[in-house]
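Figure S4 source data
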Amino acid sequence: MGRGSTTSPEPEPEPELLSYAALKSRGNACFKARQYDKAASEYSAALRCADTDAERAVALNNRALARLEMGECEGAVEDASAVIVLEPANVRHPAVCSPKLPLELPLLTEYPAGPPRCRSKR
């Protein structure tokens, strides 16, 4: 640096603005890499960007599956329940499709007072 030159700090970069599709894609990549905590975070961000109930349902279903992989049964059940509210005909409910939840756990529509507690991942 020459005499009398001043350096100014670099400006802070703008936070990256991503679309629902980009966030969902990033979540899918994390899920495939078995980085389930990062996948759940990306799906949560996608959920905040979702414009339609169909997009919300996909983000919730994906986050439910990531949560199952992390052993967060209650969070997975909450997400799946929200999907059922958005799309009652949706059959990807984790209690139906995942061996990680106890077999005796029925669909949440049978629990008007809320879901039962899940067993922890062992």
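Figure S5 source data
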Amino acid sequence: MGSEQTFHITVAYQDGPDAHVTKVYAIDTKTFRKLHRTKDWLGRARDQPTGEALAVWLRKKGCKLDSPDGPAFVQRYACGNRVEEYYRNGEKHRDDGPAVVVHKTDGRRYETYYVRGNLQKYLVRSPNGTAIPLSLSGPPHPRYPSP
């Protein structure tokens, strides 16, 4: 038998009236085949899960958020705010920048740095790019939805 191949699948859906979510999951060959099966074990046509139902199905199958070339979780709000989260193997992780970035419409950016799921530091960037480090033991990160 050959080695197990990993595929990436992007799932997008509307989350409430004012938010749009995009998630990228890593899936193995077995899950990929199950997802693309068109008939159930009795030969009946099978509905394919889509949107949020697909995200729930993937989580139940043990698939993890993972994206090798960009954020694995993006939530866009109607007001213009945006949350981006970078994952590797289901853990918040990014080598070359913050793993969580909250973009505010006024130009502020809240950045949280993680390495292999371990919190490293918080920063707030003003619209002019000035970074203000926050204490890890200080107030919690601005509220944002978790994936």
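The CA atoms of residues 39 and 46 lie 5 Å apart. Helices lie at 29-35, 51-60.
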